[in-house]
Amino acid sequence: MPPPLTLYVHYPWCVRKCPYCDFNSHALKDATDEARYFDALKRQLEQVLPQIWGRRIHAVFFGGGTPSLMSVAALEDFLSHARALLGFGAEVEITLEANPGTAEAEKFAGFRAAGVNRLSVGVQSFDDEKLRRLGRIHTAAEARRALEMARSAGFDNFNIDLMFALPGQTVAQAVEDVQQALTFAPPHLSHYQLTLEPNTPFYRQPPAGLPDDERAAEMQAACAEALEVAGLHRYEVSAWSRSGRQCAHNLNYWRYGDYIGLGAGAHGKLTFAERGEIWRSQMPASPGAYMEAMRRGETGRLWQVAPQERLFEYLLNRLRLFEPFEAADFSACTGLPAATLHEKLAPWVEKGLLQRQQDSYRLTGLGRDFVDEIVADMLN
Predict the structure, then answer these.
(1) How would you class 29 by CB atoms within 10 Å of its CB: exposed for 0-12, middle for 13-18, buried for 19 or more?
(2) Residue 124: in which H helix or E strand, if any?
(3) pLDDT band per the 50, 70, 90 thresholds, residue 161
(4) Which pTM does this prediction carry?
(5) 37 in a structural domain
(6) For residues 104 and 81, what is the distance between their CA atoms, to the nearest angstrom?
(7) Structure confidence by residue, pLDDT tens digits, 348-359
């Protein structure tokens, strides 16, 4: 039996690209042809349909870029087309990433009516000076107004994105951002450290006043305490949620599930258990190149995941989650014997970074700080 299947749809445009962002996003231009792009998305979906026939979609995620820039009409049309082709599960979670800009927030009710039932709002900070230094185009007031509009539009399931270790930020200011977010009683909160990613303006010219590693760790610990007190629990490296409100698409991703990746630069993964094969796909990154490839009926780049790579891939994803995982699940997802997992993880159990109970593993408190080292070892 194949693993659960979700759908990821990439919307590659933003009003302006942030200087820390290394995602596949491009500044929105007047010449952007939304109808042509959504036609390409539908063509790609129809192209992949024979490979996933009979499988139901458990979650849909519109990422970017800034998906909230898309028109409600285009989103509604695409979701109707996807439902007709794929058949969504009864409780399918449909998430759309949104920026807190006024123009995007005014569409929230339309997105909800079109079938989106979860928003992920990229607030990043409630401090205007920090937002300015991050290159964000919204204000703290607009962020608060957007969250209020989301609730008014009927979104009882939503995520707030926050960053910490910002230029000039103190521990108290980082905690204050969390406290501001908590006033909206979010079911889910993503909390991650600002990092200087290669090929970004911040990497080439780091902003002044970045906290050092010790101060960043203090911020993370103080914010974690505030989130726990408020009833949110950390279930993933950078994600917190209330009970039952984990992001369904991301959970499936970290559990090494399958997903269709539609759009410019999107990645996909499909398992064919009866053949013992796992295939990955990647679409052209440029929106123009992607649309032209779909017009020509091309498939993007496809490659098979070799058996020796599956252990690394599985643990790279699974160890982001703080839940236990079973050796039987490893075998079902990778087609590899459980003995392979036991052999590779035994040294880390001995070092106290992993805990083993019969055929189940989970990270220890210490192990959470050494995930990268454990995963890197899988390549040897």
Answers:
(1) exposed
(2) strand 118-124
(3) very high
(4) 0.95
(5) yes
(6) 23
(7) 999 999 999 999
Domain count along the chain? 2
Crossing angle of helices 338-350 and 327-334, rounded to 10°: 130
Q: Has residue 268 been placed in a domain?
A: no
Contact between 97 and 67 under an 8 Å Cβ cutoff? The reply is yes
CB atoms within 10 A of CB 54: 6
DSSP letters for 5-59? EEEEEEE-EESS--TT--SS-EE--TT--HHHHHHHHHHHHHHHGGGSTTPPEEE
DSSP letter for 165, please: S
Spatial CB neighbours of 334, under 8 Å, sequence gap ≥ 6: 256, 278, 307, 310, 311, 313, 314
CB contact at 8 A, 215 and 171: yes
pLDDT digits (tens, 9 = 90+) for 121-132: 999 999 999 999
The last residue of a domain, from among 213, 229, 251: 251
Quick check: is 320 in a domain? yes
